[in-house]
Specification:
With 381 residues, the chain is an alpha+beta fold. It is 45% helix and 13% strand. The strands form 3 sheets. Strands 1, 2, 3, 4, 5, 8 and 9 form a 7-stranded antiparallel β-sheet that branches. The longest helix has 23 residues.
Length: 381
Amino acid sequence: MDTYGNDGTGGAGAGRRTFGIEEELLLVDPATGEAVPLAGALLDLYVRPLEAGAGPVLTAEFQQEMIELVTPPHATLASLERDIIAGRAIAHQAAEDVGVRVAALGTSPLPADPHPVQLRRFRAMTEEYGLTAREQLTCGCHIHVSVESPEEAVAVLDRMRNWLPVLIALSANSPFWHGQDSGYASYRSQVWNRWPSAGPLEILRTPDAYHQLVHDMVSTGVALDEGMIYFDARLSRHYPTVEIRLADVCLRPEDTVLLAGIARALVETAAREWREGIEPVAVPSALLRLAAWKASRWGLRGELLDPQTHRPAPALAVVNSLLNHVRGALEDMGDLQRVEDLVDRLLARGTGAVRQIEVLHRTGDMERVVEDAANCTVSAP
């Protein structure tokens, strides 16, 4: 949950702003579709690349029913996309070696009884947080984007916070919970926000204010350590990046690429605003929580809260507002056409949540939902 998998990432000042992703993947039984606790066996057989930064790697996560795919930093969408596809293929093969499959699902469609990895920290979390920890079998997508300095990093957090809930809607891929239709496009968001340290930040303005807040939160004892500071976006503890953490893992590799492209453009746009002296929008965190709830509930199939007016608006209009907001950064990085194409494709076919619901309605079988998701996980665009 709290590491970025390779040594270093180039700062924005070295050229094009770099980015990388962490995708959490569910391990499922190919016959029943149920989540299975075989991460340890999988990782025991998996051979990690010897050369740091050589390509995507697999790591353990909180629960034994999941693994994490981590890419090194990239400068272009094309190279990042290659690593996402390659990493999912590696995960697929590693899962097959222990008789299971990987599925990019935000939550398990079938009932699950998760098994935490047997580390002292995870045992402490399970004891302290009770059902919140025991039920925490959720798979997200975390995006790291390079920044030049701590000052720029906090300025970015301050200026992109009102746009982040739209990423929940774009990535929504968790409509089912314990075998039931939750009524949410991203129920993972609801489960994840049970953690007391999760959610949006207030405007902080300086690195000192950010680090003081983290210190104060850990000092309460409610957050066990700095790794449990689960802000929607936070400063990496190990690398010169901001980490955007609130999206579901995406069903299809191309949707992860879309999220990464938009995330980098959001960071670049926010950094430009800071350099130009544009003040952050002073929207209260309470309204951002409502915007995240709305995105979690409906995904792209209803109204969202407009990040500029904080009033309900059609999802398509909000997505277009987001693209307009980051258009200059997308153009300058050469990503505009690719991102617009990916948005058009996503809007035409729907999110992973839409796909899961359609498969269930067509087959009446949750096992087929999981099977279809596992197929989509490793299918190239």
